Amino acid sequence: WWSVADNEDATLVCEQILKGLSDFALPKIKSIASSEVLMKFWEEDIGQGLTEYERRVYLARLLVFEKRGEQARAALESLEKASIGRLWEKSAAVEIEKLRDRLR
User: Fold this and answer.
1) Residue 62 CB: number of other CB atoms within 10 A?
2) What is the pLDDT of residue 31?
3) Which of 18, 36, 37, 43 counts the highest number of beta carbons within 10 A?
């Protein structure tokens, strides 16, 4: 974190933050800021900061939204199988039902 005592300090801190965002954060975000990349990550079990449930649901939602019927059905089936006996089984069932309705 930064300490700011006056306007000069504030300007320097703002410049450091801007440099960090433009040099590191934004290029990283741009590299994954597409539906294709997100689907690929989630299909490959990559999803830093996501639970397994979130990753599987987000993948299924995105596939349904993108109107990729067969892939969406496969993702829903995978979600359903993975949820069996898990704490999130009922949540998954509700989500699956809603998404299957959207596929019809």
Assistant:
1) 18
2) 83
3) 43
